[in-house]
Amino acid sequence: MAANQEQVLTWLRQSADVLREQRTYLTELDAAIGDADHGINMDRGFTAVMEKLANIGDADAAAILKTVGMTLVSTVGGAAGPLYGTAFLRAGTALAGKSDLRPEDVVAAFTAAIEGIQARGHAQRGEKTMLDALFPALDALKTALDNGQDLTDALRAAADAAEAGAKATIPMLATKGRASYLGERSIGHQDPGATSSALLLRTASGR
């Protein structure tokens, strides 16, 4: 199974809807350990993305993702804009010249996105960030594909792993970002960035 341009656009549209629906929830999570604006910022960013993509024409997946990245960088406040923006830009670069996306292309784009986040945020797994949802998701995606599952089922496995990863941030001590300023008080709260990442992956899975 391959993904095409229309499926990428559908994922982004649905993601914008989900982020709008979960705006308050994400902001509440961020209020506990951040600046209380993650849901607001993500909704704003993806609303701007939808406006940009309305006239995207027949652009390929690479161009679409790069447009998303540039839009998020310019419209999303806090750390989320640069991090998510870099992720989409790197993913788009990894898909240059691709029309239909094979499973291995999706893995390459996902890997590039994570590497971009690491480079921009100087973060690693286990520091109570979005990477704690994204790394398990990538691992699950690769394992599912290696075991012969199709892309749809592999994305569902990735989404499940991302949600588990987001929940696993609750007992973690934050050592990166605004939450790290709280020290021990960051323990007991779910990371909002990991949560929004899990939402994006759940949407990608079609559930």
Describe the protein's topology:
Elements (H helix, E strand, L loop, with lengths): L4 H17 L1 H11 L4 H16 L7 H15 L4 H15 L8 H19 L9 H16 L4 H17 L24 H13 L3
Helix pairs in contact: 1-3, 1-9, 2-3, 2-9, 3-4, 4-5, 5-6, 6-7, 7-8, 7-9, 8-9
Oligomer: single chain
What structural class is derived from the secondary structure elements?
A: mainly alpha
Classified in CATH, the superfamily is: DhaL domain
At the third CATH level, what is the topology name?
Answer: Serine Threonine Protein Phosphatase 5, Tetratricopeptide repeat
Radius of gyration: 16 Å
Write down the overall mean pLDDT.
93
**What is the molecular shape?**
globular
- Topology order in helix (H) and strand (E) letters: HHHHHHHHH
CATH architecture: Alpha Horseshoe
Query: What's the total count of β strands?
Result: 0
Helicity, in percent?
55-70%
User: What proportion of the residues form beta strands (DSSP E)?
Assistant: under 5%
